[in-house]
Design goal:
Blueprint: E1 10-11, E2 15-16, H1 21-34, E3 38-42, E4 47-48, H2 50-65, E5 70-75, H3 77-85
Parallel strand pairs: 1-3, 2-4, 3-5
Helix pairs in contact: 1-2
Amino acid sequence: MASRKSLAPIALDADLRLSQAPALRERLLKALAARSPVTIDGGDVAQVDTAALQVLCAFTRDATGQGLSFSWGGVSGVLRDGAAMLGLDKTMNLPVA
């Protein structure tokens, strides 16, 4: 079986709030459809809200359910704190700080 080529890392925007959630969802759905390993870089996230965290949770759930390999290339403190505040850090498979 041929190995699947990894997609370019998906860099999350610094402003990751409700207004950005639909575009983020579309990017992540394309990554799921490609069925290739995905790296998400959240190192630049400076603002995050529940809507964006829900999109990321849905992606991690769906990727795991489909057996898609994904990893975090970077996680800002803001992203980590927002996820932890809602109890989503484990669900999102965030790396331990």
